[in-house]
Design goal:
Blueprint: E1 6-10, E2 18-22, E3 31-40, H1 42-48, E4 57-60, E5 66-70, E6 78-79, E7 85-90, E8 95-100, E9 109-112
Parallel strand pairs: 6-9
Antiparallel strand pairs: 1-2, 2-9, 3-5, 3-8, 4-5, 7-8
Length: about 130
């Protein structure tokens, strides 16, 4: 579902490029955006690891065994170790939902932790984060 709560602009996070920002105040636990995903086959994933698209993948599934590209603004939410949003996979629906983990102010960048899941909490990022 397209969200009227967000917009894309230049991130203030070093080397992040674009990011997703709150167009309005968003309350804790409020749904920000529901994004469909496109599963990327293992063959295509290996072919795309040499492209810019690898930085837009999400790992999907119970054991994070699948790669997906998240549509909507989903692949543009930047990583931080102190995020103001979380995402929840809906495997049956092939969607990812983004929720506010605290109140988010209008024009504040919305961020997530790419390693938020409890099982793999110590899983390192696949890129160098600059904050």
């Amino acid at each position: 579902m397209p969200s009227d709560k967000t917009y894309v602009a230049t991130s203030e996070i070093a080397k992040a490029g674009r990011g997703v920002f709150a167009k309005v105040e968003i309350k804790k636990d409020e749904l920000i955006e529901k994004c469909p995903v496109i599963e990327v086959s293992k063959h295509d994933t290996s072919n795309l690891t040499e492209t810019i698209l690898v930085t837009y993948f999400y790992y999907f599934g119970k054991d994070k065994e699948r790669s997906v590209i998240v549509l909507g603004f989903g692949s543009l939410y930047n990583h931080t170790d102190k995020p103001n949003a979380i995402y929840k996979e809906k495997q049956e629906e092939m969607t990812i939902e983004f929720f506010a983990s605290r109140d988010i102010k209008k024009n504040e960048e919305i961020t997530v932790s790419y390693t938020q899941d409890i099982q793999n909490n110590n899983r390192p990022l696949w890129f160098k984060a600059s904050e």
